[in-house]
Automatic annotation (TrEMBL):
Belongs to the diacylglycerol/lipid kinase family. NCBIfam families: YegS/Rv2252/BmrU family lipid kinase. GO terms for molecular function: ATP binding; kinase activity. Pfam families: DAGK_cat, YegS_C. Keywords: ATP-binding, Kinase, Lipid biosynthesis, Lipid metabolism, Nucleotide-binding, Phospholipid biosynthesis, Phospholipid metabolism, Transferase. This is Diacylglycerol kinase family lipid kinase. InterPro entries: ATP-NAD_kinase_N, Diacylglycerol/lipid_kinase, Diacylglycerol_kinase_cat_dom, Lipid_Phosphate_FormReg, NAD/diacylglycerol_kinase_sf, YegS/DAGK_C. Its cofactor is Mg(2+). Residues 1-129 form the DAGKc domain. It comes from Dorea formicigenerans. It comes from the Bacteria. One of its GO terms (biological process) is phospholipid biosynthetic process.
Length: 305
């Protein structure tokens, strides 16, 4: 049986409209399914946990990166369910990285007749307070601050979504925050190696997928099937240089410049001299000065659509 988790609010309310169209197809084809709507932040994880106690074998997510992140966080045993995804969010970095179709009807038809599966890694963020899984990326510092303010500025996001310019909202907020930021040093420990201290760190992100922030290809080598996290550290650059580099990150060309450091590892511990915002899949409801990123030992079976 299929279980659908739908964020009706995704991309400023588009989620519900798309679900209503897709439900007609499910009914026409007499598909056995259950529908669950997310009602508030964090609800996706609770619904996913609840679904694990039903006889659903395929869990389909309709929403954005935040919703798919919440859902992987809530699944109890990653080996017991097949995951599928219909991207209807604003940023859609998971779909972009996995090269999924943007057409919801095509995606549903693939999911109902699956031919291609990927077994994908799931990230884990730990702070002294919480442990949470993620699907795309998690980061500390400037990138999380952008997510935090982007989610606060719902009017701007709503307006840009209406004009089909959702990803521009990240860019506009990023520019403003960059100019007012005051980056300090951070220490990173990759696996069991010697710690490295970086001065003036804007952000460090641990990526399971290549893109974050609505289309920035921060870690072009990231592959969710390689059992490795890809780390990006942005350190010691002037604000002017960051402004010049940012557009090159849309095509993953930023990595060859001084001040951008990338690594691959199984786990990374970050210690910051100041408490900073932390995000998982673009939802930045956390703050910490110490975070650890890792991967779950199990992968989840995912239907490519
Ligand atoms: N009914 C709801 N009302 C308000 N917020 C919700 C609701 N359901 C889920 N949410 C929250 O909205 C967040 C963002 O939703 P989602 O990721 O689906 O869409 P998006 O923000 O448009 O896309 P993206 O994350 O790709 O930019 C989720 O992480 C969740 O915390």
């Amino acid at each position: 049986m299929y279980a659908f988790i739908v964020n009706p609010n995704s991309r400023s309310g588009l989620g519900l409209k798309i679900w209503e169209q897709l439900e007609l197809i499910l009914k026409e084809r007499h598909i056995d399914y259950q529908i669950y709507f997310t009602r508030r932040p964090g609800h996706g994880a609770k619904l996913a946990a609840q679904i694990c106690d039903t006889d659903a074998d395929t869990l389909v997510v309709l929403g954005g990166d935040g919703t798919i992140g919440e859902v992987v966080d809530g699944i109890r045993d990653l080996t017991k369910l097949t995951l599928a995804y219909i991207p209807i969010g604003s940023g859609n970095d998971f779909a972009r990285s996995m090269k999924l179709t943007k057409d919801p009807t095509k995606a549903l038809l693939h999911i109902l007749n699956p031919t291609d599966y990927a077994y994908i890694n799931v990230g884990v963020l730990k702070t002294p307070q919480i442990e949470r899984r993620y699907a795309v990326s998690s980061g500390i510092g400037f990138d999380a601050d952008v997510c935090y303010h982007n989610n606060l500025s719902s009017k701007l996001k709503h307006f840009l979504n209406k004009c089909k310019l959702g990803k521009l909202s990240y860019t506009a907020i990023a520019l403003h925050l960059l100019l007012t930021s005051n980056p300090k040093s951070m220490r990173i420990t990759l696996d069991d190696q010697k710690p490295i201290t970086f001065p003036k760190v804007y952000f460090i992100a641990a990526m399971n997928q290549r893109y974050e922030g609505g289309g920035f290809e921060f870690c072009p080598q990231a592959d969710p099937k390689d059992d490795l996290l890809d780390i990006i550290v942005v350190s010691g650059l002037s604000k002017f240089k960051i402004l010049c580099l940012l557009p090159t990150a849309y095509k993953g060309k930023h990595t060859k410049f001084k001040g951008i450091y990338t690594y691959q590892c199984k786990s990374a511990k970050i210690e910051s001299v100041q408490v900073l915002p932390v995000h998982t899949d673009g939802e930045a409801d956390l703050r910490s000065d110490t975070v650890t990123f890792a991967l779950e030992p199990d992968r989840i079976r995912f239907i490519r659509s």
